[in-house]
Amino acid sequence: MDQKHIGIILLILSVLLGTFVYLIQADNEALADDYMAKEGTCFLDDGTCLHKEKLPLFIFGWAVSGVLFLFGIYITFIDKTQKFMAEHQIKVASALESAMKQEREKDEFSAYIAGFDEEEKNVIKAIKDQEGIKQSTLRYKTGISKTSLSLILKKLEDRKIISRKPSGKTKEIYLLKKF
After folding, report:
1. pLDDT score recorded for residue 53
2. How, if at all, do strands 133-134 and 170-175 pair?
3. Taking Cα atoms as reference points, which of 90, 153, 161, 88 lies closest to residue 119?
4. What is the average per-residue pLDDT within 147-155?
5. Nearest-CA neighbor of 118 among 144, 139, 138?
6. I want to staple 171 with a disulfide (CB 3.0 to 4.6 A). Which of 33, 113, 148, 164 is the partner?
7. CA 17, 20, 22 angle in degrees (round to 5)?
8. How far is residue 75's CA from residue 5's CA, in Å, rounded to a whole number?
9. What is d(CA 100, CA 51) in angstroms, rounded to the nearest whole number?
């Protein structure tokens, strides 16, 4: 049951309670009028007034009916908490899913590079961080000499780990497996 249905139920209950209080109050007034017509006064033998005898009960009934009515209107037409919570839950679920996906990719990448030596790991990490990195930039990023880097890249290319594409006087390097 959603929020609007609860609000409508509260509105119906408030109207029913208000009607019930009105009918009892009208019946009480009719009895008081009959008594006044017979006795000529609204005071009983003990000195209490018929009009004030049940007044607190009627006030309480009207107050409860009014509060239910106002709360029903608020829930039905004004309060947007349920909608906000649903939107928030979707955002949180999406963020969690994204974080879990990134964590899985990180774990998968870590497992993938576990079989390489340290220099190869550094080269593969740098290529993953900047897809299409130029060979000259990779040399500065990893701190590996030009000759050693060329040998490592050749070995990785032969093993079908990376691909190199000419770009001017240098080459752009890409990982063949996407993470």
Report:
1. 73
2. antiparallel
3. 153
4. 93
5. 144
6. 164
7. 110
8. 9
9. 71
Separation of alpha carbons 54 and 176, rounded Å:
87
Helix (H) or strand (E) holding 15: helix 3-39
> Residue 16: pLDDT above 90?
yes
pLDDT confidence of residue 86: 85
CA distance 150 to 125: 16
Q: Which of these, 139, 107, 99, lies nearest to 123 by C-alpha position?
A: 139
Structure tokens of 93? 């679920």
Amino acid at 50: L
For residues 12 and 54, which has the higher predicted lDDT (pLDDT)?
12
Q: What is the pLDDT of residue 179?
A: 67
- CA 55 to chain CA centroid, Å, is 47
**How would you class 91 by CB atoms within 10 Å of its CB: exposed for 0-12, middle for 13-18, buried for 19 or more?**
exposed
Please give the sequence-ordered ranges of beta strands (E in DSSP) within the chain, or none if there are none.
133-134, 162-167, 170-175
